[in-house]
Amino acid sequence: MKKDTLEYEQALGAVVDILRDRARVGAAPLSYGDLSGELARRGHQVPAHEGPMPHLLEDASVRESPDGSLPLLSALVVLRETGRPSGGFFKLARRAPYKRPGDDMELWVEEIKQLEQHYAGR
Fold it and tell me: pTM of the prediction?
């Protein structure tokens, strides 16, 4: 699956839908494996830890918050081993236009809180 293809755009739409739905019901994180499984159930074969997954997660956050004003959807996806996002999430959160402050844990906790507030009842 390559960026800028119909297949990628359809998988990206599914990632956004899955993560928005997750945010609406309390913003409980899910693992890369769980996201991969949910995508497979929707007809998109995206391995949990290779291929397009990191790009899809970054693009989902950028699509939802292109100017940095909304919380980053990719905060909801965590490594099963640590229960925290991968380094890619923190790199995205710290670059422009997002520039999220705090150490990794503070940044992530605040992002989850913002997701809960933003998507509650939507």
Answer: 0.93
